[in-house]
Design goal:
This protein is mainly α. The protein has helices at 4-38, 43-71, 74-98, 102-117, 126-129, 139-147, 166-178, 180-187, 192-208, 210-218, 223-239, and strands at residues 156-158, 162-164. Strand 1 and strand 2 form a beta hairpin.
Length: 266
Amino acid sequence: MSFKPVFLGLSAIVLAASLSACATTDQSAEASEEAARINDPLEVPNRFIFAINRTVDVVLLRPAAVFYRDWAPEPVKKATRNVLDNLNEPVTAFNEVFQGEPGRAGETLARFVINSTVGVLGIFDVASEMGIGRTREDFGQTLGVWTKDYEGGPYLMLPLLGPSNPRDAIGLAVDYLWDPFNIAIRKYDVQYLGWIRTGADAVDSRARSIEVLDDLERNSLDYYAAIRSAYRQRREAEIRNEGAARQGRPTWLRPGTAQAEVEFIR
């Protein structure tokens, strides 16, 4: 009996097994790299929460936003946005201080004082007309500036609140706790004002993002993944302060060339 055919057959089997193992290893390595890049280890529960959020949006929020956009008079919509922006100014100023930007914090506080008095509780944006434009900072951005971490950890989809990550979730809680408006409504037991503010902000923000989100959903093979990508790009731009130059601010006061503001309403 000749062992040569048997040997050749065994060699072929071993070679095929080796190539298969190498291919499997390469595929595993590519899958690991892709998972690390996406950084969404909780994708299954995140997608479940995303589905719930979309249901709430389709049934309640988007219809309310469409009605508000189409039927509310433009002066009412502008005044609503101005008031909501004005209420955010103290939190922005706090974060600008912690980010090492006391000059910007001073301008933000000046905006708040001017618009709260001359602007009648923020209804009119007098500060912008004076050349002091608005910026927006939060504690999630502050943590990002401190750590130079532009991703913020694993991706999270928060119930009703939308895209986030551990850093931004902590930042959201901190901003809520040290917001002077929230402190005041807790002290004087008028929490309903907080619900009014939250509801108005949600409807107004959704109304201003209807076309953007509709277009994103229409042109995305995976709407969840598209939202995840857009959220991360926006947050990185905000932490890097791309587009942070104040709107309406005279050119000679700007620290550098103004860049297009990156905005994505979640």
